[in-house]
Design brief:
Radius of gyration: 30 Å
Structural class: alpha/beta
Helix content: 10-25%
Number of strands: 18
Strand content: 15-25%
Amino acid sequence: RLSSHSFPGPPSPPSKISNSTLRDDKITVMRCWKAMGGKATKLRRGSEDISEWHGVTVEDSRVVGLEWRMQRLSGEIPCELSRLSALKVLCLQANQLSGPIPADFCRLTKLEDLRLHSCSRLCGPIPLLIGNLLSLETLYLHGTGLSGDIPPSFINLGKLKDLSLHSCKFSQTSQSILPPSTIINSKERIRTFFKELAKMHARREWLISDTNAVEKCWSALGGAEANLKGDAKDGIPTDPSTWRGITIENSRVTKVDWSHLGLGGSLSESIGDLTALTTLRLNNNNIHGGIPASLGKLRSLRGLALEHNAFYGEVPATLESCESLVFLNLIENPR
């Protein structure tokens, strides 16, 4: 007679999903290796078992590590690597790779260790959404040709422990905030770097806002764009600090001197957006209309010269809010 005790059944077959996923990872690994000029025989090392392939680490039926440093790999880093969604370690340093870091890398949200250093032909900016790599603890990009600004999303990398960005071609502004040491490997120094990065991008946003306001005001006064900015060379916009009559300090517009330029039109309310402005000289033009009430937002304004124009109407009461104002000239304007 059968016992009432239950007996364990035979072991369950491997999950079809796991097998399928590992098979997909295997195809992706081989495609990426070949795309970078690697030979299949060198990768396989005589085995069809992907866990025995050169530099490949497998855990729980997923590829979690690729360590292919100094393999004479070349060409661009394939976007297809982003399909390895379980990847934790990617080391491609000291190869002959070129082109940009694929933006799709930002989908590798489990990535903990990314090393692309000493690939001098890598170029272009760091992907804007690199801050999506919330698990990242080690990031080495030194000795590459990466350029542009370090993106603001960088400060989202709260788990970062080791960071190296030296000997790249980042913008002068970005390079100015990098610590002098080659590798930043303390939480305190990384936090300090993040604070400086946040300040840098805040200043950049202020400058963009200020220059937009300058452009609006110049246009409202009937000025031609070329007369404000000069001629762009090779399609590159001119530096706002070289614009006609504009003074910039600490990434803010602090002075506007558009006197004696024959300007007409009216003064835009956008002038009130230049909240760091200390001096505004518009005298000896043919500017008409009312004096904008938004001038009252300029708490740092010390000098305001509007004489010899065609302003009319009441002086806005908001000017009383300009606590720093010590010089005001409104003569030779219609009452």
